[in-house]
Design a protein that fits this description.
The protein is α+β, with helices and mostly antiparallel strands and 295 residues long. It contains 6 helices and 12 strands. Strands 1-2-3-4-5-6-7-8-9-10-11-12 form a 12-stranded antiparallel barrel. β9 and β10 form a beta hairpin. The model has no long low-confidence stretch (mean pLDDT 80).
Length: 295
Amino acid sequence: METEIKEEEEEEEMIQQRSEEEKEEVSEVATKKKEATAKIPEDKKDEKKKKEERVVYAHFDVDLWRTKLHREEWGIRLDAQRAQKDRQWTRDMDMIGEIKKDGETYGLLGQREKLWKAKDPLERRFVMKMFSPGGYWRGSIERLQGESFANSHATKEPCPAYVCIFKHTRNLYRIKRLAHFPRFQGEVFGFSFLDENDIFRTFMIDDKRLTFGSDWMIKDIHNKVIAKIDGKFMNLGGRFKIDIFDEKLAIDKTFFNMLILFSATLRFHKDIKKNRVAMKRLMRWTMSNLKLLNE
């Protein structure tokens, strides 16, 4: 009998030891799971930070002056010298800003002031030109009168269209505002171009609505942000920073010059839309006709 009792006691002790060991194993597994779950959000945060911290392969500063009190604008003789250097510098051209690439002077911006300040809304045109620091023409952006009016008429809202012309290529590149619904989400522009290897690419310029200033994100067909235009808030002249996050596009003349010229139009964006509304009223309520001039 005593031996049987001892055996039973030993069995009970063994069972208790096993249960305690199992509890310890369960607690260890639970602690490991907690540690793993605690690490997951940290990893996600790191991934988000990596996405936000994009590599900037090229940086441009577009500074549109508030006044004409700049050394680049002093003297009537300068206009004559610029006209002699390049035919693209016309008599009604007014120097309005400069461009810097990675801190160094890249070029100057000029506008055909007489055409833009025409009193008749139907004769008002927008033409902006970009010149090298030495005064030689690099490219232009011009509002397309007919196409802008047709797009605005069809969408029932101002939809300006532009054409970009460059010295280094014979191709013409269009940038135009597209109808965007719902409208409170902001404006969208679209453009396409051939890169240096003659590969067709298309992009969207998306307005970041809920921000101070004029901010735009340039996205490719995969909805990836490949560049950004950041407009300074409460700047009366117009200052824009351009960052390019794509290594190949950062050295593509056509691409970054298009972004420079587009950012230069943003200072006049509201006036361009107002002009389109005024043109529509004149043509609807009077017998006025729109003449497309070639100057």
